[in-house]
Amino acid sequence: MATDLDGTALRTDGTVSPRTVAAFTKVEASGATLVFVTGRPPRWMSGVAGAVRHHGLAICANGALIYDLHTEEIVESHLISAEVLEEVVAQLRANVPELAFSVEYEGGFAHESDFPLGGWDSKAVGGLNVGMTTPTSQTLISRPCAKLLALHPHMDPDRLQATVDDLVGHLVTSTHSSGRSLIEMSAHGVTKATALAVLADRHEINPSQVVAFGDMPNDLPMLAWAGTSYAVANAHPKVLAAVDHVTAANNDDGVALVLEKLYR
User: Fold this and answer.
1) Cβ atoms of residues 7 and 232 within 8 Å
2) Strands 2-3 and 35-37, how do they pair?
3) Which of 102, 180, 244, 257 has the maximal Cβ count within 10 Å?
4) CA-based angle 219:221:223, to the nearest 5?
5) What is the pTM of this model?
6) Which residues contact 248 (CB under 8 A, 6 or more apart)?
């Protein structure tokens, strides 16, 4: 069983409901494999790890990082190289001048001074502000990263992703998941589905045996790969159109409702 977190298994306030925790426990008690598949970086996983008693693995940063919830350590990485990072930022800055950038590393994040931080990162300590001293900040792109983020002040997210794909789709794989005009880029070919497929193969699990849940475009590759796919009722229209089934919204424990039936 594989599920996205924010907007899917978690409530809108970012918490895991007691009912959902109990449903996850039933999955594990049945002997099935439970995998969280999220756009979150590992540094945002402590609360989730605690709620599920530090069991299992998480696929983080849209497939770029595999995170052991027991040890709270990254066990596998698929990064964007510094050379590709530099080229992508240069191409996007030249063609979409209003973009602001931030990056997720394996052990932290950095952002430009005009990149407005979201709720989680605005409270975080240790984010490196690299300023705007050069056309492509050398600090920002000086080392490989798990995820490059590009934020536009007002462009529609779907239109912005199409623009990014046209410009640098041969270098990175893009998606979006937050509702903001925020594009998330991973190394070329890296998605939630590619990471989940590797984990499934290691456990000798076929795609037909996998039930997956999601709500946003970054979940689409995973939902297409899984044998059975569910969207929560609050999902993006593209997700609702792509899945086999629709369950209740995240705030109504939609994932738990399905798991309670599957794992009695």
Assistant:
1) yes
2) parallel
3) 102
4) 65
5) 0.86
6) 232, 233, 254, 257
The residues, any chain, with a CB within 8 Å of residue 142's CB and separated by 6 or more, are 82
pLDDT in tens, 196-226: 999 999 999 999 999 999 999 999 999 999 9
Encoding tokens for residue 76? 């596998």
Give 91-132 pLDDT, tens digit per residue. 999 999 899 999 999 988 888 888 877 654 544 434 444 443
Q: How many CA atoms lie within 13 A of 153 on its CB side?
A: 4
The rounded distance, in Å, linking the Cα atoms of 171 and 40 is: 22
Burial-class residue 156 by CB neighbours within 10 Å (0-12, 13-18, 19+): exposed
Rounded distance between C-alpha atoms, residue 133 and residue 261, angstroms: 56
DSSP string, the chain: -EE-IIIIIS-TTSPPPHHHHHHHHHHHHTT---EEE-SS-GGG-HHHHHHTTT-SEEEEGGGTEEEETTTTEEEEE--B-HHHHHHHHHHHHHH-TT-EEEEEETTEEEE-TT----HHHHH-S--EE-TTSSSS-TTTTSS-BSEEEEE-SSS-HHHHHHHHHHHHTTTEEEE--SSSSEEEEEETT--HHHHHHHHHHHTT--GGG-EEEE-SGGGHHHHHHSSEEEEETTS-HHHHHH-SEEE--GGGTHHHHHHHHH--
User: What is the rounded CA–CA span in Å between residue 146 and residue 139?
Assistant: 15
5, 11, 100: which is closest to 44 by C-alpha? 5
Mean pLDDT of the chain: 89
Distance CA 60, CA 77 (A): 10
